[in-house]
Here is the input.
Amino acid sequence: MKKSFILIISFFSVFSLYSQSKGFGRWSFMPEYGYNMFDGDINQNLSTVFPTSIRDITYGANLEYALTPVWGLSLDYFYFPLKASNTIPLVNIDTKLHTADFNATINFTRWIFPETHSKFHFNGAIGVGFAQYYTNPINPLSGKAPNDALYNEDSLMIFRAGSVPVTFSLEYNLFKPLALGFRVQYRAYTKDNLEGVSHLNWKGVTNDYIAAGSVYLRLKFASSKQKHLRDATWQEYQPSAGLLEARDAKRQIAALGKKVDAVDERVKSAEIKIDTLNNRVTNIENKVNTYDMSIQNIQIFMTNNGPDTDNDGVPDVRDKEPNTPANTEVDFWGKTIKHEPNPVKIQTNVGVDVYNDLIPAVYFDFDRTDLDNQALETISKVALKMRNDSTLLVEVRGYCDYMGKDNYNKKLSIRRAERVKQELVKVWKIDPRRINSNGNGRIITPPIKYRPNRRCDFYFSK
Here is the structure.
C-alpha cells in the first residue's frame, strides 16, 4: 500500500506543473462504487446457472490528466474483496485485494468524431499496476483452513502481484464540472494463487482475473472558469490558422467594444454635464433678462425726459399726482411733501451708528455750482445712506432763486443737480443708475436773492 501511495503522489506532482496549459482544465477525479466477480481456478457447480463466484461490493477512485481531447493518463486505486465457493474439495475463498494502476486512457467518441458536441462519451483504458492481497480460505464443514492454505494460523501473509487492467466506460456530461458514468473492467494478475489454496493452482494456468462493474462521478477541476479538455473539440484544442485569426479578431472586437462602451459612458456623462451647464446658462440668461428689465424699468423711472403736465419736475411716467399746483414741493413720485422726512440712520465706516435730525439740502452761492465744506458733508450722509441700502434710489432736485431769466435758471438748476450726482458717483462710487438728477429752475418766492432757494434737495425711493 505504501508503494501505491507513493506512486499516486509522484503522478500528481509531475503533471500538476502542466495542469492549466493551453488554457484548458485537464485534471479530473472519479470516485467509483460497484461490484466485482472473481475469475480464478474454481471448480464450478455444473448444475447451476450462475458461477459460484459471489459478487461483492468494491470501490475505488481514479485521478486522470487529459493530454489531448482524445488521450490521457490516469492513476487508479481499487479495493476488491474476492469471494467464491469451490465444490471439490469444498472450500470457501475469501481474499482481500488492494490494487493501484497506471493507465493510458482514450476517448473513443472524440477520436472517431473529433468535432462532436455530444454529451455522451465512450472511453477506454489499459494499464499496468501493482496489487497486495491476503487470503483466508475456510472449509465450511470443519470451519478450518485447508492444509495447503497459503498462510499459517498465527498471522496472515501478505502477497503481491502485478496487474493489467482493461476498462471501458460510458459517461454523460450532466453539466460543465460534473459527469456521470458506468465502467466495466477486467483485470489480469500475474499470480495464480489469489484463492489462497495451493491445490487450486492449475498447472499451465498462470493468471487469475477479476471482473467488475461500477458507477462513478467525474469531477472536472477548473471547468467552471475555463473549458475542460475532455469537453473540448479537436478544433478548439488545435485550431487552424483561420480560426486563430478569427479568435484574435473576436478578442480585438470585444476589447474595442469595451472601449466603445467606455467612450459611450464618457459621452453620456459629458451630455449630462452639458445639459446641466445649459440649464445654468438658461438660468443666468433669465436672471440677466430679469435684471435688464429691472434696469430698464429703473431707467424709465429715473429719466427726466418725457412730458411733465404740471411742471413739478417729475415726468408723467412716474408722477402719481399729475395735477399739483405750481411751485409745490413734491417727492420722487410727484407727491406733495407735507412734512419733513423721519430722522435717518447712517452707518459710519467704523461701525458706529450716528443719527442726524435731517439730511439738509446742499446750498450754493449766487450763480455758482461749487460745493463748499457744508455741502460735501451733506453729500457724504447721502452716500452712506445709499451704501447701507442697496435698493435705495435718490432724485437730486436742483433749484435757483428768483433772480435771472427762467431759461437760464432752468439750466443752472440742472448743472447744480449734476454736480451733486457727480460727487456721489466719482467720490463715493455710487452706481449712477441709482441717481436721478433733475433741475426745477427758479423759485418765484421771495422775489429776491435768497440763499435757501439756491439748493439741491434729495428724494429717496425704493
